[in-house]
Specification:
Strand content of chain A: under 5%
CATH superfamily of chain A: Sodium/glucose cotransporter
Number of strands of chain B: 2
Structural class of chain A: mainly alpha
Radius of gyration of chain A: 23 Å
Strand order of the largest sheet of chain A: 1-2
Helix content of chain A: over 70%
Radius of gyration of chain B: 29 Å
Strand order of the largest sheet of chain B: 1-2
Structural class of chain B: mainly alpha
Oligomer: heterodimer
Largest sheet of chain B: 2 strands, antiparallel
Number of domains of chain B: 2
Number of strands of chain A: 2
Helix content of chain B: 55-70%
Distance between the termini of chain B: 18 Å
Low-confidence stretches of chain A: none
């Protein structure tokens, strides 16, 4: 047994123990969906960080910096700044006025059935796309980290899928929360340790470290080149509309994070709005600290390991683990690999519970059965069954796509849908008295459709691949892209708002206006908010 | 309504010999205020009156006065990064601190900007909490 496999198994054992402990405490609806709203501020903050920092952050951004220097680091910034929108606009009103899902806030003064149906569709779209990207990444990663002789791609995907189903089906939100907390602590510990090792390598001198980053050599198309990795322009250039693409990505992050269903449900797990606020601050400290340290991970990998070595040993996603190996040997490589594994599991568990909560609460109970449970505990039962199917479908799709599939665009898509469909309707329903059902449905639909169509026309899907690229990694449409940017936010977010505003004017709804008073009083004072329940 | 009302069925509440303010188990009238559950109480709140009250309008104004400028500042500051890096590259490549250029320092400053605004908000929000508590306690004191 390799050390990496041993650490994977240790993490699995600990989290299964937590699930067993949480299972008895997750029977009622409030307990299953919200961990009885008794998670404390710092716990939820750490869990938000654990829910948010996916393998794309840990391995992906370290890799982007190792390969493209500054342009990769610029990528890091938006992930933290986006939390200001969560803190200032969304977290507290949501906690005060909602119960289990984002749609609760929308349904307050609007006609619940059409609004919840559309919100559930958008939630499930965001969650499944994000999850498929994570699952394909997980499978590829686990085989790389453990060696494909030990674990095949299919069994890695199936294993990750089964674990996430177990956490969610048996342990509900409580188990999911603790898996995320442990993962976030592991991730921070690993990142701090790696950063210190990088600094030690440069004699504890930041000047030496940054000096090394100013001249990094690697082979580009067979030629040895030396570049200043602190200068922008290695990835985003004028030719590929770099600045515009980055602005578009920034918009998707800044508006999308506050519309990500798996982040929003976390604010229902705390006792009140003030605790929700404190938890965002905790999350911002951790997330910010982590992304600042990607400086050391990324430039460290570029200077110590080198781009050529990473490219020939599994590609840019392996930058952080290879850096660990170069600095402290195989045991540390195993530790970092286990952290990457924990990272993926915590994120997919969060996605699964938000998708199943939305299906059970918004679609099954509210839309199909008009808001009443036919038997006590039905909603939780439906959510558990949904979690099982969501997991099974994610496993199936990830295996069908295969490990070389080009899935990075699915994450961009998830953020784009969250920013273009979810955020406009959340903001307008909280701040615009005239906003109504037609506006919400039109806003959700136009944001969703605009994101899907623009991504389909973008270079993520439409691109002519050179003959050297493996068939499985080919872009879906072998033609020149119609929409030039990889991130559709710059166009799809205004379209989402436009749809919501035009829809509102299309059919006035005096009833929605008259119930605005109740919503703003609840959202701003916490009067009548859902309270924590006893176990 | 008296517990001895002849129209009511016999009261099964145990007699412990002292006066109690708990209404008898079989009573049919409206519940006294102190026995209402949160949901029953929520239904009784006059939301329009609170929304129209001076205190609540003050709370909204105070929040708006903080949140709107804060949003504008952070959005302008954040989007200045990709814009300057994209369209003013020579300026951003200027080395200002040993080997470190303006581009890196500007990106790094974004983290501190985010933390700074968050800290300011937490301070301001404690004031909003006090205002909200006043509104709630006034509402609870009302019959």
């Amino acid at each position: 047994m390799t050390p990496a496999l041993g650490m994977f198994l240790l993490f699995v054992l600990i989290t299964l123990g937590i699930t067993w402990w949480a299972a008895r405490r997750s029977q009622s609806a409030a307990a299953f969906f919200t961990a009885s709203r008794r998670i404390t501020g710092w716990q939820n903050g750490v869990a938000v960080a654990g829910d948010y920092m996916s393998a794309a952050s840990f391995l992906g951004i370290a890799g982007l910096i190792a390969f493209y220097g500054y342009d990769g680091f610029m990528f890091s910034v938006g992930w933290l700044v986006a939390y200001l929108t969560v803190l200032l606009v969304v977290a507290e009103p949501l906690r005060n006025a909602g119960k289990y899902t984002m749609a609760d806030v929308l349904a307050y003064r609007l006609n619940p059935r059409p609004v919840r149906a559309m919100a559930a569709l958008s939630t499930i779209t965001v969650s499944t796309f994000y999850m498929i990207a994570q699952m394909v990444g997980a499978g590829a990663l686990v085989t790389l980290l453990l060696g494909s002789s030990h674990v095949s791609y299919q069994s890695a995907v199936t294993g990750v899928g089964i674990l996430m189903i177990i956490y969610v089906v048996f342990g509900g939100m409580l188990a999911t929360t603790w898996v995320q907390i442990i993962k976030a602590i592991l991730l921070m510990a690993g990142t701090i340790l790696l950063s210190l090792l990088v600094l030690a390598h440069f004699g504890w001198s930041l000047t030496n470290f940054f000096n090394a980053a100013t001249h990094v050599s690697y082979h580009d198309k067979g030629e040895l080149v030396t570049k200043n990795f602190l200068d922008p322009g290695l990835r985003y250039t004028a030719a590929n509309h770099g600045a515009l693409d980055l602005i578009s990505l920034g918009m998707a992050l800044v508006f999308g994070t506050a519309g990500l269903p798996h982040i929003l449900v976390r604010f229902y797990t705390v006792p009140d709005a003030k605790t929700a606020r404190i938890s965002v601050v905790w999350a911002m400290v951790l997330i910010g600290g982590f992304y600042i340290m990607t400086t050391f991970l990324g430039f460290g990998a570029a200077t110590i390991v080198g781009r050529d070595h990473i490219a020939s040993h599994g590609g840019n996603n392996m930058s952080a683990p290879l850096l660990a190996q170069a600095l402290a040997g195989d045991i540390f490589f195993a530790f970092i690999a286990a952290i990457a594994f924990a990272t993926i599991l915590a994120v997919v568990a969060g996605l699964t519970i938000s998708a199943s909560t939305s299906f059970a609460h918004d679609f099954y109970t509210a839309v199909i059965h008009k808001g009443t449970e036919r038997s006590p505990g039905e909603e939780v039962r439906v959510a558990r069954i949904t979690a099982f199917f969501v997991g099974a479908i994610a496993i199936g799709v990830a295996i069908l796509l295969g490990k070389d599939a080009n899935v990075a665009f699915l994450v961009a898509l998830a953020f784009a849908v969250a920013a273009s469909a979810n955020l406009p309707v959340i903001v307008l329903s909280l701040f615009w008295k005239r906003f109504n059902t037609t506006g919400a449905v039109a806003g959700l639909a136009s944001g969703l459709v605009a994101s899907l169509v623009l991504i389909a026309l973008s270079p993520s899907i439409m691109k002519v691949d050179p003959p050297t690229v493996a068939a499985a990694a080919h872009h879906l449409i072998q033609r020149a892209p119609i929409f030039p940017l990889e991130n559709p936010g710059i166009l799809s977010i205004p379209l989402g708002f436009l749809g919501a505003i035009l829809g509102t004017f299309l059919r006035p709804e005096p009833e929605a206006e008259s119930r605005y008073a109740e919503l703003i009083v609840r959202a701003n004072t916490g009067l009548g908010a859902e309270e924590a329940t006893v176990e | 309504m008296s517990p001895d009302d002849p129209k009511l069925p016999p009261d099964p509440t145990l007699f412990v010999g002292s006066a109690t303010d708990i209404s008898p188990l079989t009573h049919t009238g409206p519940k006294p205020g102190h026995e209402k559950t949160a949901t029953e109480e929520a239904g009784a709140i006059n939301w329009e009156a609170i929304a129209a009250s001076v205190r609540f309008k003050e709370l909204l104004r105070a929040k708006r006065r903080f949140i709107i400028p804060a949003m504008i500042v952070f959005i302008v500051y954040y989007f200045a990064l990709p814009a300057l890096v994209g369209y003013a590259r020579p300026l951003m490549e200027k080395r200002v601190l040993g080997p470190v250029n303006l581009a890196y320092l500007f990106a790094l400053s974004q983290f501190f900007m985010a933390w700074f605004i968050a800290a300011l908000y937490v301070r301001a929000a404690n004031r909003f909490d006090r205002q909200a508590r006043e509104i709630i306690s006034k509402e609870n004191a009302a019959p």
